[in-house]
Amino acid sequence: MIIIGELINSTRDIIKEKIEERDKEYIQDIAKQQVDAGATYVDVNSGAFVWDEIDHLIWLVETVQKVLDKPLSLDSPNEKAIKEAAKVHNGIPMINSITAEEERYKKILPLIKEYDAKVVALCLSDDGMPETADQRLKIADKLINDLSRDGVPLDNVFIDPIIKPISVDGEFGIQVLDTIAGITDWNTDVHITCGLSNVSFGLPNRSLLNQAFLMMAMDRGMDSAIIDPLDDYMMKLIKAAEVLLNRDKYGQNYLKASRAGKLD
Amino acid sequence: MIIIGELINSTRDIIKEKIEERDKEYIQDIAKQQVDAGATYVDVNSGAFVWDEIDHLIWLVETVQKVLDKPLSLDSPNEKAIKEAAKVHNGIPMINSITAEEERYKKILPLIKEYDAKVVALCLSDDGMPETADQRLKIADKLINDLSRDGVPLDNVFIDPIIKPISVDGEFGIQVLDTIAGITDWNTDVHITCGLSNVSFGLPNRSLLNQAFLMMAMDRGMDSAIIDPLDDYMMKLIKAAEVLLNRDKYGQNYLKASRAGKLD
């Protein structure tokens, strides 16, 4: 499972505050904690700052990579912010995100190519936010075809079906699960990820909903997730799911974690 | 979700001991706890007693129903034990189980008909224990056709695909998930259940594996499970899963449980 740690996001009040205060230690600590807990990528987002997002994003990249030899997920709706952040990023970044919107696609594609970057590809088109699995699959199909045609190795692509809160419509979870199953059936090299916690927005005891949904999504073929890796129980369930889905052969990782007391 | 509480099973040492000691209070307490935790049916099994299984099963039924106005799942490989237990059972029992084995089928069918009973139908035939999803689906198809032909309402039937331990073969979980999806696709009135905890047999931290597998199985269409309802976290995850799968409309049960502090 490829975990993208979601915590360094300026839409969270505490993170916004710490970015403004230039609190290096706090940010570095959250980054390290996420990697220690199993994150492969650390997402950095300063999109809540309208005027100085770019400065803040550059600061986040430099601050985190000063203590971590890990690739970051450069997360912004603003391609200029991604561009500047990529310049100071060490190693191959993940770009979060491209979409099938014509303008966005054109602006982000050159950055992916320049850095041979990993990229989160959102199922979003100029027709707006998709509702059904079929609508999502149509956009995913276009993204896969276009990115492939434009020379992006599909193994670099992380399709994100876009989860909307089930508190808004009880069918939203099922539509995403069916999308994941559909993409998995195509049997391409793309990865499938998602900003999982959105599913539980507006409901109490969100962690339960996130955990349950992640198990279902993994079963349908999702092999990555943008989550809070400090949700300890979720990380344990992921290890269990990998055994159940025969992705952790002979349960080697599971047994190792168990012996180390990490599943208790 | 239709929960069949599995704890009163003589293969568990403590239960065997308490049955032998005729410890009514202990057995009644375990039964009540399971119902309080959400069990619809309470399974009773005295199969570990070779010579006096029938006496013990009758005692279990009478003992449990003395304090609980709930249907029991009469669980035995021995049709005579089920027959005698059904005689003393109040209300409509669940019979655990019929199979597609010719002899077993013939012996159990009259009991189902006599009591208009619910029945767990194991995917087991005279060809032996199935390995693949296809083999299981073939047996499930036969069971559904035969039971339907023989006048058993399909809404009374709980197909159990038979889970084998993934510690034996890493593909065993996936085969059962695919079986559940296949049966669900037929869109009949049958329910799907399973003796869930078998999946984790031989591995440590079994509860994690059971919980993760249950989420996946529910997503594939399973609407019942033979489990330990005293696994509090599993019961919480079930409530979350029912919201995610839109079986709990508007999250009414989930929100009610949350308000009562039962999801914390």
Question: What's the short version?
Answer:
The structure is a homodimer of 264-residue chains. By secondary structure, chain A is of the alpha/beta class. Chain A contains ten helices and eight strands.
Description:
- The structure is a homodimer of 264-residue chains.
- By secondary structure, chain A is of the alpha/beta class.
- Chain A has helices at residues 13-20, 24-36, 53-67, 79-88, 102-115, 133-149, 172-186, 206-220, 232-244, 252-259, and strands at 2-9, 41-45, 72-75, 94-99, 118-122, 157-160, 191-192, 224-227.
- Chain A has one domain (2-259): TIM Barrel.
- The first copy, chain A, is globular and about 45 Å long.
- The mean pLDDT of chain A is 97.
- At the A-B interface, α7, α8, α9 and α10 of A face α7, α8, α9 and α10 of B.
